[in-house]
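Format notes (please read before filing issues)

Several people have asked whether sequences and structure tokens are stored in separate files. They are not. Every record keeps both together, in the order shown below: the sequence lines, then the token lines. Line labels are part of the format and must not be stripped during preprocessing.
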Amino acid sequence: MGATLILPGLNGSAEGHWQRHWARDDASATIVRQSSWSRPVLGEWLQALESELERVGDAWLVAHSLGCLLAAHLADRPAARHVKGAFLVAPCDLERTERLHPGVIDFGAMPANPLPFRSLVVGSRDDRYMDFARLRRYAACWGSELHDLGHAGHINIESGFGRWREGYQLFSAFAGRIGHRPQGGMQSQGVFCAMTASV
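Then the structure lines:
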């Protein structure tokens, strides 16, 4: 199925996080290393991701939280041509995240451009990092499919997601649907993508 690049969010994915299990369980998977997990800078994180994409060639992205926004920032970048598809779990809202972690994130604005590759957003209805209504709108802006996981918190260790077998199944089904078809997704379809400030 090709290489898989795992994109953790702020502070990385601690031991026991489903992304760590994924990296061990899948011989083709690599965690994209960042120079600083605790003080994310968009330019630095993008450079690391783009360098890894150029190194491995075509790859799947498996992202969590801030890692989802990193993947979405590839929308207008040349390295996006290497992305076979993106599995975006619990994307965070930058404004909420910055309020919860003041002064540590330098990630620009929320990305809202359509993605040139197929993507699946997996979201939760009680994620303190992203209101579900906003999540639906961003998924539409990105042209992503959306899977509602119900009340699942931030889909991390704290909310009970260690070795997340359902996640493997969701990803496998998503990748199987893509095959060699071009990007389709929801493609905005009239959704207003100039997002207003969160409350």
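For reference, the curators noted about this record: The two ends are 41 Å apart (CA to CA). The helical segments are 18-25, 42-56, 66-72, 94-100, 132-142, 165-178.
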